[in-house]
Amino acid sequence: MSTSLLNQGNSYDTVYNNFEWDIPEEYNIAYDVCDRWVEDKDRVALVYEDAQKKQKIFYFHDIQRYANQLANFFTDLGLKKGDVVTLLLAQDPECAIAHVGCWKAGIISSPCSVLFASDAIKYRLNDCKTKILITDEANYQKVSEIKKDCPNLEHIILTDTSTNVAGNFWKLIEDQSTSFTNVVTKSEDVAWISYTSGTTGMPKGSVQPHRMMLGHMPSLEFIYDFFPKDGDALWSPADWAWMAGLMDILMPGWFHGCKVVATAMKGFDAEDAYRILAQHEVTLALLTPTMLKLMKQVDAPLSKYSLKLRAVLSGGEAVGASLLEWAQKELKLMLHEGFGQTECNVILGNNGNLFPIKAGSLGKPTPGSIVKIINDKGVEQAPGEEGHIACLRPDPVMLLGYLNKPEATKEKFIGDWLITGDLGHMDEEGYFWFHGRADDVITSSGYRIGPSEIEDALIKHKAVQIAAAIGVPDPVRTEIIKAFIILSDGYEDNEELKEELKNFVRQKLAKHEVPKEIEFVKSLPMTTTGKIMRKELRNKELNS
């Protein structure tokens, strides 16, 4: 059966202008990502590869059975529609099953990254009033330390063991019925709460309705070159605790009945990424620019790995010309940069088969979304003028609001425009260009400078593996540009190289965009989805 929401066309204008939203009043994600595929007993939902590279296959009928059992278990515990279950899990089968089980029962799922320390976990558990936490043995210690400080937390469930106070996931559900009638949910009912990455300020709970699943799909079909196609399989190293992993890979793949690959990768390894892509015949992948920069260090990858990739979504940071050129040359494919955020995911994107990709551009508005550049008063800006990248409501991909933060919700909008917090401009041909986060913008000698262009210039130098640029306080210029650089193998930290890099940037960018300071580092602070946390770098400078 055809599940595509987009009609394929030969031009961007045709695809964009012919699309119309059709959001039903009642909608439950669980049906689309699971139930409608179970009659095909051979349809693979998930291939899970553990830390020892051992594989386990889950079919859609497996996912439904376990999700139904979990929904029945929740019901027996007395959980009601609107209660919250937090999933402190990585790319584990139990994580995917639990999301579906929650939605079936009308329960709100809340993903939480395993990389968080105890205080960060406690903040989220208390903020959303979690009643049940599902995690694993590796993270149980962090949870046990804070349980007494989480008054709403009634049960802890472990996926791989049990304790005197925490039951085992599989033992708890094994005697439950495998049948369950999904709770009737409205499209506007809350499905999950996804916390912002924390790159700017205190994390906020972004409240996501069931209809957001439908809101995602046209954009992803557009960027993934009109998927699904026969044999499509999806993978990303991005943690399922974040929007990128959960809603740009896992659930969109299942929405179309495609195989999704899950891996227990500890940290990102470029060689292992190539192996996974080849071994599992992945056709669609989400890889951040940081991941791609590391993969770029592997020489002649196609001589070692037989890849079936046909589309790669990248974003979160500027992709840049050097990565685009490398992908075309070495991987024989175009990188489709996309733009979105937790609160309004994927509203700009590229599809090289519909229009030429301009290096550095975020592309054009995805079908169904109205995106403009506006000023602080909500007035649309002319082509070439800088302003907020903003999306017009109503749009099914938008959040309902921030949990417990009405003022922050109000501040997210200027009139009916959701402001992303990113600055940019639109050119005469309708392409959008990213200048930087509103709070990442560097103000120096009267110039407003986005860091992405500087970073892209630096990584074109063979000595630079990864770069991050920030503004640091200066009594004369307000701020000066400082670059933090991870060197490529074979290069040493010295003053001569710093001057060489400054001259290199000076040859590519304006004088005021040349870093005044450069520091060579072994690592950079990053979110689990591979975004550089410039705020942490700024805090380090202020406190040094």
List its salient traits:
544 residues; alpha/beta; Rossmann fold; GMP Synthetase, Chain A, domain 3; five-stranded parallel beta sheet; 17 helices
What's this, in brief?
This protein is of the alpha/beta class and 544 residues long.
Polypeptide structure, described:
This protein starts with 11 loop residues before the first helix and ends with a helix. The model has no long low-confidence stretch (mean pLDDT 93). The strands form 5 sheets. Strands 1, 2, 10, 11, 12, 13, 14, 15, 16, 17, 18, 20, 21 and 22 form a 14-stranded mixed beta sheet that branches. The chain is α/β, with parallel strands linked by helices. Among the domains are: 129 residues, Rossmann fold (3-Layer(aba) Sandwich); 103 residues, ANL, C-terminal domain (GMP Synthetase, Chain A, domain 3, 2-Layer Sandwich). It has 17 helices and 27 strands. The chain is globular. A hairpin with a 5-residue loop joins β1 and β2.
* Average pLDDT taken over every residue: 93
Task: Specify the CATH class of the domain at 57-185.
Answer: Alpha Beta
The quaternary organization reads as single chain
Structure summary, number of beta strands: 27
Strand and helix layout:
Blueprint: H1 12-17, H2 29-33, E1 44-49, E2 55-59, H3 60-77, E3 84-88, H4 93-104, E4 108-112, H5 118-127, E5 132-135, H6 137-146, E6 155-158, E7 166-168, H7 169-173, E8 190-195, E9 205-209, H8 212-223, E10 233-235, H9 243-255, E11 259-263, H10 270-279, E12 284-286, H11 289-295, H12 301-304, E13 311-314, H13 320-331, E14 335-341, E15 344-349, E16 361-365, E17 371-374, E18 387-392, E19 401-402, H14 406-411, E20 413-414, E21 417-426, E22 432-437, E23 442-444, E24 447-449, H15 451-459, E25 464-474, E26 478-487, H16 495-506, E27 517-520, H17 534-543
Parallel strand pairs: 1-11, 3-4, 3-5, 5-6, 6-7, 10-11, 10-12, 12-13, 13-14, 26-27
Antiparallel strand pairs: 1-2, 8-9, 9-19, 14-15, 15-16, 16-22, 17-18, 18-21, 20-21, 21-22, 23-24, 25-26
Helix pairs in contact: 3-4, 5-6, 8-9, 10-11
